[in-house]
Amino acid sequence: VELVESGGGLVQPGGSLRLSCAASGFTVSRAALSWYRQTPGKERELVARITRAGTTTNNDTSGRFSISRDIATNTVYLQMNSLKPEDTAKYYCNADYQWLTYWGQGTQVTVSS
């Protein structure tokens, strides 16, 4: 199983980014998939999650961020709109599959003018 994130970068406040997580070794329709983020000195926090039951986002990102998956390309996305400086973090893709948890290496998102 491998998860490879991409799409991070520098964006101005109010801007948008779409993060991608290319999955291999399993089918994204058969796993619970999440995006987390982490800043130095803080614990990793859940940003959004998608399962067979639907999607959830945390209170800070609700209405601005959305998670989706493309079965054809086996990819999970995080669409981030109306970005704020406090969204600056390293974003990680996570998969819970067959009772194991997998992480990608992360992609940095910096929101700054």
Task: Summarize the structure in words.
The chain has 113 residues and is mainly beta. Helices cover 0% and strands 57% of the residues. The protein is built from no helices and 11 strands. The chain has strands spanning 2-6, 9-11, 17-24, 32-38, 45-51, 54-57, 65-70, 75-80, 89-97, 100-103, 107-111. The strands form 2 sheets. Strands 2, 4, 5, 6, 9, 10 and 11 form a 7-stranded mixed sheet that branches. The N and C termini lie far apart (37 Å).
Largest sheet: 7 strands, mixed
Overall pLDDT, averaged? Answer: 96
- As a percent range, the share of strand residues is over 45%
Please identify the structural class as seen in this structure: mainly beta
User: What's the assembly state of these chains?
Assistant: single chain
Distance from first to last alpha carbon:
37 Å
Please compute the radius of gyration using only Cα atoms: 13 Å
Fraction of residues in H or I helices: under 10%
**Structural shape:** globular
Q: What is the overall number of helices?
A: 0
Topology as a string of helices (H) and strands (E): EEEEEEEEEEE
List unreliable stretches of 5+ residues: none
Total strand segments = 11
